[in-house]
Amino acid sequence: MTKAKIAIFLLCFFVLVLGPSLMAQNHWLNTIVWVEKTPENVAKLKTMWLDILMDWQGKIWIVASPDDIRKLKDAEILYSNDDNEPDNKNESNNDNEPGNRLHKGLESISAQTTINGAFHSYREVESEVYALERSYPNLVQVHIIGNSLEMRNLYAIKISDNVQADEEGEAEVLITGCHHAREWISVEVPLYVAKHLAENYATDPHIRDLVDQAEVWIVPLLNPDGLEYTIHFYRYWRKNMRDNDNRTYGVDPNRNYDFMWGNDNEGSSAISSSYVYRGPAPFSEPETQAIRDLFAQRDFQVSINYHNYSQVIIYPWGYTNEPSEMDALLEEMASEMAARMERVNGRVYGYGQAGNQLYLTNGGATDWALGVYGIPAFTMELPPVDQQQGGFYNPEEEIPSIVRENIPAMLYVIEWAIENK
Amino acid sequence: MKSAPPAVFWAFSTCILLVLIVILLLPSSGWTQVKIGQYVDEASVRTWNNIGVLTAPAVGLGETQFTLARDSSVALTNPALLSRLPKFTASLNGSFVRATCLKYSLINTGAITSTGAMDIGIIALDYAGASVRYKNFTLALSFGLLEYYYRPGVRVESKYEGQLYHTLDFDQDGALRTINFALAYKINERFSAGIGANFIKGNLEKSVDERYYVSEVTQEDKDSSDYSGFYVNGGVVYDVSDRVTVAAMFRTPYTKKAVSESLIRYESRYVEIRTEAEAKDNTYKQPLVIGVGANYKLSERIIVASDLTYFDWSSYAVTYYEEELDRDFRDIVKVSAGAEYWGDFQLFGKEWRFPLRIGFNYDPQPMKDPNIYYLYLSVGTGFRVGRFAVDLSGMFGKEYGSGDSLNAQKVVLSLSYRI
Ligand SMILES: [Zn+2]
Fold first, then answer.
1. In a domain, B1, yes or no
2. Staple B378 to which of A260, A336, A377, B395, CB 3.0 to 4.6 Å?
3. Average pLDDT over residues A176-202
């Protein structure tokens, strides 16, 4: 009887704990790529012990781990992972398909030998946003919405038709990235979403439709000082770079907003060395002040803050387990986003109320947007699912696929904002 | 000719480190931010202002050297002085440098807080050289250890219920060396000029290695650079009178080039994630240096001397992996002065001569913020017997301006053989 209980307990334990992570591992580790079936490639591939999926329509499809991707690169075999499904081949030949474009964009960035690889540093974000503005002057406008403690610019990219004008009646959406320094992938997604909107405006009627009716504000890098610190000194740094004057450093920007700020010491900390230190006062930090001021000047209908990791979409409240009045709507929107995202790469994003999903948080940007402005707001915790799958680290090769699956969710949110303006 | 000295590095510093300070003081009103100050990654231990290896005679005089020919190390600063050395000289120099630093890399800048300043201690054979004169020409070959990039290593251990669950190790080490060929020409009894060619080589290795034992996660961040470069130094020395000598020297600005590699690695039970980068053309634009010096012989036995050295640090620039690093530097002038007394006595039937030296040194560092400088006092002595010269000096300094109360010391022993 006891043995049976123990056995059942152990079984449940393994299923619950190991099961998801192992399954997630398969999702996470392996991507399907194809290479052109040329005699040279076939000869090279024969010696590489790869997991060949099929030989189809002049291409060899491979289930590739990051290691395999490296092997392909080393062997100078050109590969593409534009789509998981060969059925989408026709679309994937379309140059306007998001995957193709992003992949190309990524290659040009990977070619740079910057110290953080394909991820963007502050300077790289700066040059990207201005390059985008130069390429699409009627669609993209770069705004400096403030300065960090170390006087780096906080950039916002405004994307809209007649971008120079502040068009009455257009829906407004805010997207932020990198409240937290070590969450490098959270810079990439907003940045590439901006590129995607601008680059596909001319050719994709759906995107044109959305951009014509909305003003999308994207702040890809809210904590540039922290990001630079993770690049040059300590990869695992989270907060901004405030000197707290007691030999401790950093305020957690995502605990510094003025809604339920310091509500308790579980959802944030009053201790300055803590990684969730909320700061001496709400909006004590120039980074959060910039978002506060942007909200005051605009009229956002919805906002999304990118973070990682966990692979979940969470929504207010974070400061309590109690649901918000908007709970049903938030759940509906999150579930729609998750469904659209799963369709892209098959990656499943969980969703739920923040206070129930991860841990309590107070003074966060997402609670603040709902609490003060009454708008739906989401924290998008990007992959991986857990620490064993990489925690705050994402392989460079995964950037395009993570970006790709986030685009439909983003478009949905813009659609929603337009419909509910 | 001596072969290149194996630069023996030693660190004695272990660190008093640890745990986070958990007192919340009242927050200041203004915006304050992390300022590393002196010890950015590529900063040499103790001072930024390195133009050669100063051996014990110069250190005893507060690092005053431009007008005083004591051994072949003058080839690295003012090679004109080579023509005032004996016909043949060979010298070795060993030094012990100790300095404290508070903020560097991830220490006291965010990630890790120490309970106090950290100690750096380095013992090195830092100069070996020889000079030989033929008619009006003097030729010298020198090996010098110009800069040290060593930092106190740090290990942080976290335990939970007696069980180790997390460790973090930080290490940084490296050095910059020069091989110098110098030639001096005696134009007349009073006037000499000299020039030197410097081929530099060096390296810097830095790593942060973090392990979580329970979850079996490893996080590593490694950076390494190999340095190379070339510059020219030169100078003149002129006896204005029997009592007064003046000199001037320069070092050309040059680019310290670096070939660098970086690896960020994450490993868990299921994944290994590597982000690797390589840069073949990182550059550190080193400043022009111009120095002037004078000495005055008060008597047969007493001489006073002083040097002023200008460093064009405002031109300093670092390009690292295609990005300009933020180095907001200003030009500085280093001031040194000293006095030397020569005594003698008879022992074992030989004449022994001995110097007594004292000196002073004002050594401002190039960062604009915080604006800091070191003040040093120095003493030195030694003896000359037959063909041998032995000198021993110490220099003791304190830093002002950062509020961190850093300090630095140097003890130097030189041996020379002269014909
Ligand atoms: Zn985050």
1. no
2. B395
3. 97
A65 to chain B, closest Cα gap in Å: 10
> pLDDT digits over B81-97, tens only?
999 999 999 999 999 99
Do residue B278 and residue A113 have CB atoms under 8 angstroms apart?
A: yes
Per-position b or e across A9-28, b if 16+ CB within 10 A of its CB:
eeeeeeeeeeeebeebbebb
Q: What CA–CA distance (Å, rounded) separates B401 from B411? A: 24
Same domain, A88 and A138: no
Which residue from B minimizes the CA distance to A228? B325
For chain B, first and last CA: distance in Å?
Answer: 15
**Count of CB pairs separated by less than 8 Å, A with B:** 147
Regarding whether A128 and A106 lie in a shared domain, the answer is no
Q: CA–CA separation, A37 vs A45, rounded Å?
A: 10
Compute, in angstroms, the gap from residue A302 CA to the centroid of ligand 1: 19
Full domain range(s) for residue B227: 6-418
From A201's Cα to the closest Cα of chain B, the distance in A is 32
Phi and psi at A397, nearest 5°, equal -65, -20
Domain assignment present for A7: no
* C-beta neighbour count of B51 within 10 angstroms: 22
Q: How far is Cα A328 from Cα A323, in angstroms, rounded to an integer?
A: 9
Which of chain B's residues have a Cβ under 8 Å away from the Cβ of A114?
Answer: 277, 321-323
Picking from B157, B154, B170, B172, the residue whose alpha carbon sits closest to that of residue B15 is B154
Ligand 1 centre distance from Cα of residue A170 (Å): 30
What is the value of ipTM here, to two decimals? 0.88
Decide: B382 and B392 in contact? Cβ < 8 Å.
yes
Q: Is residue B31 part of a domain?
A: yes
Cβ–Cβ of B217/A387 closer than 8 Å?
A: yes
The contacts of residue A200 (CB under 8 Å, 6+ apart) are A96, A98, A101, A207
For residues A350 and A261, state if they share a domain.
yes
Q: Are B262 and B321 in contact (CB under 8 A)?
A: yes
Write the CA distances from A306 to A113, A351, B259, integer angstroms. 26, 14, 35
Mean pLDDT of the residues in chain A? 84
Say if strands B388-400 and B88-101 run parallel, antiparallel, or are unpaired: unpaired
The answer to whether the Cβ–Cβ distance between A246 and B262 falls below 8 Å is no
Q: How many Å lie between the centroid of ligand 1 and the Cα of residue A141?
A: 26
What residue of B is the nearest CA neighbor of A66? B273
* Number of compact structural domains in chain A: 2
* Coil, helix or strand at residue A122: helix
CATH of the domain at B408: 2.40.160.60
Distance A291 CA to ligand 1 centre (A): 16
Q: What is the pLDDT of residues A191-248, one digit of tens each?
A: 999 999 999 999 999 999 999 999 999 999 999 999 999 999 999 999 999 999 888 9
Quote the domain boundaries for residue A35: 19-110
Strands A214-219 and A153-159 turn out to be antiparallel
**Catalytic residue positions of A, numbered:** 381
Q: Which residues in chain A touch residue B18, judged by CB atoms under 8 angstroms apart? A: none
Task: From chain B, pick out residues whose CB is under 8 angstroms from the CB of A243.
Answer: 32-35
Q: Specify whether A69 is located in the same domain as A201.
A: no
Tokens of B17: 């480190």
Q: Amino acid letter at A361?
A: T
The 10s digit of each residue's pLDDT in B383-396 is 999 999 999 999 99
Q: Cβ separation of B262 and A115 shorter than 8 Å? A: yes
Please tell me whether residues A174 and A284 are part of one structural domain.
Answer: yes
- Contact call for B322 and A114, based on CB within 8 A: yes
Quick check: B110 and A241 CB within 8 A?
Answer: yes
Is B292 in contact with B66 (CB distance < 8 Å)? yes
